[in-house]
From TrEMBL:
The keyword Transcription regulation does not apply. It comes from the Eukaryota. The lineage of its organism: Eukaryota, Viridiplantae, Streptophyta, Embryophyta, Tracheophyta. During the catalytic reaction, a sulfide is transferred from Cys-221 to a reaction intermediate, generating a dehydroalanine residue. Its cofactor is Fe cation. Belongs to the THI4 family. This is Thiamine thiazole synthase, chloroplastic. NCBIfam families: sulfide-dependent adenosine diphosphate thiazole synthase (TIGR00292). It catalyses: [ADP-thiazole synthase]-L-cysteine + glycine + NAD(+) = [ADP-thiazole synthase]-dehydroalanine + ADP-5-ethyl-4-methylthiazole-2-carboxylate + nicotinamide + 3 H2O + 2 H(+).
Length: 355
């Protein structure tokens, strides 16, 4: 009999929307720099830094010996084990932008839920590595800053918004926390080419290597793979080569009537609308992030990111509700519920694991 674990979900969705904190809030960033001193002498400036010494001799450093085949086997064995484990999973999130990552982070709090993230790019994060027009800063309107508090990202607080000094701080922080979870797997450089639909319900995704998907017109037929899922969260972003692919496919197979596309920019209207219209659009498929604007004709928001975080968080709780788990939609986050322990396929198992 599977071991039983008690799970209590906590979420910034139910946090106090206003609290007292300093200008820069969040978990302090650790550093090896113990002191920095700047001095000016005779019109020259020098900076002295005191660093902790590495735990090894940099002048005589030597790696432990290995065989090339060992490296190959480790990568292959672990990846194939992940493919077996997540061939049939609880939630598949398509798109690892800010909304998709926020959704996965929130879902990962329940260790009984298995979560696969499909990202067509080699580098996940979508547009959240930079702010607007390739600038560095990320602007987040309150009260979405509470999500930054939760994951521990520092920011500069203004009157009714906050500024993260570089958008990459958000993306790298949430990824480092998320990918450390044992119930989450990111499959990057993998494209979702189609949906699995059974009896009017989305039941998974059709996958292929992204480079293969981009070259179907130049090669002979290259058949895909599949991932079955109880819930698919589509976080494919606004229209583009790989954008809004989830809702566009729903339209092409007649499960929704239209995809009008997003309207012209209006930040105040857009961010509220994205969160409000995040929902399960057809049985088995939840839409989050900028893909919501495509299906509802909502305005684009431009270089503000709070709606992406909160839309992703809401999508997670909609998925939890659909799975019969505690969730903020029903107000059951604080309730105690016994859940079966998630058991992953072991990379060290000698026996063949049945898919």
């Amino acid at each position: 009999m599977a071991a039983m674990a008690t799970t209590t979900l906590t979420s910034s969705l139910i946090s106090n929307p206003k609290s007292s904190f300093s200008s820069f809030h969040g978990k302090p960033i650790s550093t090896r720099t113990t002191s920095i001193k700047s001095t000016t002498q005779q019109n020259t400036t020098t900076i002295s830094m005191s660093l902790n010494s590495p735990a090894y001799d940099l002048e005589a450093f030597k790696f432990a010996p290995t065989k090339e085949s060992i490296v190959s086997r480790e990568m292959t064995r672990r990846y194939m084990t992940d493919m077996i484990t997540y061939a049939d999973t609880d939630v598949v999130i398509v798109g690892a932008g800010s909304a998709g990552l926020s959704c996965a982070y929130e879902l990962s709090k329940d260790p009984s839920i298995s979560i696969a993230i499909i990202e067509q790019s080699v580098s996940p994060g979508g547009g959240a590595w930079l702010g607007g027009q390739l600038f560095s800063a990320m602007v987040v309107r309150e009260p979405a800053h509470l999500f930054l508090n939760e994951i521990g990202v520092d920011y500069d607080e203004q009157e009714d918004y906050v500024v993260v000094k570089h958008a990459a701080l958000f993306t790298s922080t949430i990824m480092s926390k998320l990918l450390a979870k044992p119930n989450v797997k990111l499959f990057n450089a993998v494209a979702a080419e189609d949906l699995i639909v059974k009896e009017g319900r989305v039941a998974g995704v059709v996958t292929n290597w992204a480079l293969v998907s981009m070259n179907h017109d130049t090669q002979s037929c290259m058949d895909p793979n599949v991932m079955e899922a109880k819930i698919v969260v589509s976080s494919c972003g606004h229209d583009g080569p790989f954008g809004a692919t989830g809702v566009k496919r729903l339209k092409s197979i007649g499960m929704i009537d239209s995809v009008p596309g997003m309207k012209a920019l209006d930040m105040n209207t857009a961010e509220d609308a994205i969160v409000r219209f995040t929902r399960e659009v057809v049985p088995g498929m939840i839409v989050t992030g900028m893909e919501v604007a495509e299906i509802d004709g909502a305005p684009r928001m431009g270089p503000t990111f709070g709606a992406m975080m909160i839309s992703g968080q809401k999508a997670a709780h909609l998925a939890l509700k659909a799975l019969g788990k505690n969730n903020a939609i029903d107000g059951t986050c604080e309730a105690v519920r016994e859940e079966p322990e998630l058991v992953l396929a072991s990379v060290d198992a000698e026996e063949t694991v049945d898919a």
